[in-house]
């Protein structure tokens, strides 16, 4: 029961119906060919899943992709470490400049 007509539930509109229909249609259109991101040399590798490939061939390809990904992660980890070191150096410089500016301001005022 609502006051002055507010809160009446006459009709419920399902706005997600179109979304669910589109999702069902898109799921049926999935292709067996897939692409991965970029490798270390920034050339995008692509691979396809072929039903005729042997299990050993699939394992070899998967091992190669995992090796590429781990090498890329190692490279990114090193870059992050170097950036952290640079940030620490810049912070130390800014703190040193601030302390020297405070010292000169005190000398000038006193």
Description:
This protein has a domain at 34-109. It has helices at 17-28, 55-109, and strands at 33-35, 46-48. A two-stranded antiparallel sheet has the order 1-2. Helix content is 61%, strand content 5%. The termini are far apart. With 110 residues, it is mainly alpha-helical. It contains two helices and two strands. Mean pLDDT is 77; it is low at 32-40.
Strand count, sense and closure of the main sheet? Answer: 2 strands, antiparallel
Rg, Cα atoms, Å: 30 Å
Number of helices: 2
Q: Approximately how much helix is present in the residues? A: 55-70%
Strand arrangement, major sheet: 1-2
Q: Please state the overall shape, judged from the principal axes of the Cα atoms.
A: flat
The termini sit apart by 76 Å
How big a fraction of the residues is strand?
Answer: 5-15%
pLDDT < 50 runs, ≥5 residues: 32-40
| Structural class category | mainly alpha
Order of helices and strands: HEEH
Mean pLDDT: 77
Task: Say how many strands there are.
Answer: 2
